[in-house]
Specification:
With about 160 residues, the chain is mainly alpha-helical. It has one domain. Helices cover about 65% and strands about 5% of the residues. The chain is built from six helices and two strands. It has a two-stranded antiparallel sheet with strand order 1-2. A hairpin with a 2-residue loop joins strand 1 and strand 2. Helix 2 runs antiparallel to helix 3, helix 2 runs parallel beside helix 6 and helix 5 packs antiparallel against helix 6.
Length: about 160
């Protein structure tokens, strides 16, 4: 029995092009969120958000594939999609918490942490094949990150440095 070919067996439920498209969607959408953070010179930027979304999508695809894992009729396979969501959420929350800095009575990095958490959700949606939800979440995130920053800057509130 050759060991090497066993490492590259095809997926059980999804064609490889579908998997590739879901992973690519997660990377692109996570990249859009991360790009905004990168342009804003935040610690967690483009690569971090892309990796978070990719990892979430991969975990989702692996979990979906495990539901099609061949088992004996006597074996019971427990399928609980909420466990996947909880695991990805907890992992990303750990990373996001690391981006939050408390210093001198101020808090920084909360928005970046939230965007990392959202990148995980985008990855989950991409991994399940719900591309429309992933795209809508990404578009809303980018609008929120850009527009709210533009609206909330002191110059736009009439509180510029001259006043």
């Amino acid at each position: 029995m050759p060991l090497i070919p066993d490492l590259f067996q095809p997926l059980q439920s999804m064609p490889l092009p579908v998997v590739a498209m879901r992973l690519a969607l997660a990377v692109v959408l996570g990249g859009l969120i991360g790009w905004e953070r990168e342009v804003s010179a935040r610690a967690a930027g483009l690569r971090t958000h892309m990796l978070i979304a990719l990892a979430a999508a991969m975990f989702t695809i692996v979990a979906m594939e495990l539901t099609h894992f061949p088992a004996d009729e006597t074996d019971t396979l427990r399928i609980d999609p909420l466990r996947l969501i909880e695991a990805v959420t907890a992992g990303v929350a750990f990373l996001a918490a690391g981006s939050i800095i408390f210093s001198g009575g101020s808090v920084r990095g909360v928005t970046t942490g939230a965007s990392m958490w959202l990148a995980g959700a985008v990855g989950l949606a991409s991994g399940t094949g719900d591309g429309l939800l992933a795209v809508m979440g990404t578009v809303l995130a980018v609008v929120i990150l850009w527009m709210v920053r533009i609206i909330s800057t002191p110059a736009h509130r009439g509180q510029g440095p001259d006043q």
